[in-house]
Design brief:
Two copies of one chain form a homodimer.
Chain A: H1 7-14, H2 18-25, H3 33-46, H4 52-59, E1 64-69, H5 75-90, E2 94-99, H6 104-116, E3 121-125, H7 131-141, E4 145-148, E5 161-164, H8 166-179, E6 185-188, H9 195-211, E7 216-218, H10 224-237, E8 243-246, H11 249-262, E9 271-276, H12 280-283, E10 289-292, H13 295-312, E11 319-322, E12 325-327
Parallel strand pairs in A: 1-2, 1-3, 3-4, 4-5, 5-11, 6-7, 6-8, 8-9, 9-10
Antiparallel strand pairs in A: 10-12
Helix pairs in contact in A: 1-2, 1-3, 5-13, 6-7, 8-9, 10-11
The structure holds a DNA duplex (16 and 16 nucleotides).
DNA sequence: CTGAAAGCGCTTACAG
DNA sequence: CTGAAAGCGCTTACAG
């Protein structure tokens, strides 16, 4: 047997027609149990492998879902992608994954490639820029698509949006610090002009305004390197700052390292809150207080949402915000 | 236009036959430049999207490569998967990715699913267990497949193996510590019975044996949590240990946290070397000395290797070990 | 250089 | 419940 066996080979082996084999493949209730057994046995005997390309061509369902991620190296997104992929896999869908590295051109390319491959749906943690090119192409393809974690196009009826409730998270973080007696609270990291930065910052701004305290916003790249440098910057240029809310955990973890480096005590001297609650937060010392988005759960939830949309035609609500909670750890203890 | 346009529609629009359109799609030199332009224009005009499923059915090349990873949450593997995917994407291949979470059953499942999807090739960072089920299926499908980072089946002619030179890495780490005056060096982490654990340990064992020093091996799960606990274990049960080589960076970073927690000075009191050199190593304080595997480069290299195999039929050598180097940082400084 | 025809391996109505 | 036939959108020889 040098070529791959087809349903015709299976049919011959089992002594039925190829239509019957096809029905068995689809778990149709039309086929008698005994026949089903025979067919399955025949498949096993000749080593049949289902050819999805052929099935796709006829029925226009590839069983393939595209997952596009703006920064897959960030553990927050890794966890998201992993939990989503595993949930889809359990439901019989394979995941085509691409990292766009915050590059809009790359994003356009990979989305086109996925559409050519006939993905049945797309879940996209988008990057900013060239939104029309990317989402226009998806729109023309007419497949279900979810924008997650960042809203980059306003058409949430066509492209429903879901994310953790960043605003509430920022509020929780700010209140936590106020309750602990902090009086000069900064917001650190996140690129200026990005909607997601503003989202994560706005709860903080609201709480400070309500308390009659002035905000201090120090934008920066959302990675460890910036956080680490910021430790020096804070000590030198803003010695009055007694607490910091970071754009994400990477910035916060960098800041933690930076404080260790310059010998500033995290907790008593400077309280630090991260955002996302990636796994590292619980493992570093002192532990990093963070806003838990439960991204693994969020990933599973997005998988279910998409499966429901695909299977029952039941589109999700235009906007979904999932709850967040504050996890207090050593980085905000006073001693 | 409610159905997706096909090459027939493009042909009609451009006033040529559908064969010609197909040739244009394949960038065939047979088509006159002027005709090519017309056809491309027609595609753009009617919003044509290439249907790869149809092409695959006829020509048996899906332009899809499967990537199977045993632990995608570990930044080492994330970086590997990301760099590989991006290199494949640049070459026009889409990547189907799955995390197996070290579960052999899951691995069998996702590999089957990928074969059904007609992946042209497979790159697999395998888990231990049920090797025959997984690799038997790949073998029957007859597609090129690479086992990377771990060798789990001995048939390296059929499944070429590539990984960083772990043995050399262990040797570098041990020599580095001996040169710095360490006299009681432990090897920490890695599950017993796994080939990869032995690989990473063997350079250490060889160097210690040559120096006439007794080894101390403390196996454990390859994550931060184990490393952190190990700080206590070492201080209590093995106070004479003055240096540690860790199975991977996660263990080492956990150990770093654990030492901070119990107030043990990393460097002067205890020297620590990690393995992999993930990005965090340079960002923590003190910086973590580690064995650099340059996994991003390794990922790109594997992409090229596979592309050459696929395009030129040029199979890689049965075993490839890529060089590693020791990156010294604060965690092995004496003060 | 271009066109007409067959065929890849399935699914889908439609008869029986 | 099962079978014969058409067709999904391409590619691939084969003529011209």
């Amino acid at each position: 047997m040098d070529r791959r066996p087809t349903i015709v080979d299976v049919a011959r082996q089992a002594g039925v027609s190829k239509s019957t084999v096809s029905l068995v493949l689809q778990n149709s209730a039309l086929v008698k149990e005994e026949t089903r057994q025979q067919v399955r046995q025949a498949m096993a005997d000749i080593g049949y492998v289902y050819n999805r390309a052929a099935a796709t061509l006829r029925s226009a369902n590839a069983g393939l879902i595209g997952l596009v991620i703006n920064d897959l190296r960030n553990p927050f997104f890794t966890e998201f992608a992993t939990s989503l992929q595993m949930a889809l896999s359990a439901a019989g869908y394979a995941t085509v994954l691409a990292n766009t590295d915050e590059d809009p051109d790359l994003q356009g390319q990979v989305v086109s490639a996925m559409l050519e491959h006939g993905v049945s749906a797309l879940i996209i943690a988008p990057t900013y820029g060239q939104e029309d090119a990317t989402f226009g192409a998806i729109s023309r393809a007419g497949i279900p698509a979810l924008q997650v974690l960042r809203k980059v196009v306003p058409e949430v009826d066509r492209f429903p949006f879901a994310a953790p409730d960043y605003l509430a998270g920022g509020r929780l973080a700010a209140r936590h610090l106020l309750d602990l007696g902090a009086r000069r609270i900064a917001f650190l990291g996140g690129l200026e002009g990005r909607e997601v930065t503003y989202q994560r910052m706005s709860g903080y701004l609201a709480v400070l305004a309500a308390a009659g305290l002035p905000p201090l916003v120090l934008p920066g790249r959302p990675g460890r390197a910036f956080g680490r440098e910021a430790a020096r910057l804070l000590a030198r240029s803003h010695p009055d700052v007694d607490a910091v809310i970071c754009f994400n955990d990477l910035v916060a973890l960098g800041l933690l390292s930076g404080c260790a480096e310059i010998g500033r005590r995290v907790g008593p001297d400077l309280k630090i809150v991260g955002f996302d609650d990636i796994e590292d937060c619980a493992q570093v010392f002192p532990g990093l207080t963070s806003v838990r988005c439960d991204i693994a759960c969020f990933g599973q939830r997005m998988a279910e949402t998409m499966l429901r949309w695909l299977r029952d035609g039941c589109a999700p609500p235009p906007e979904t915000l999932t709850p967040v909670e504050l996890i207090a750890r050593g980085s905000t203890l006073s001693r």
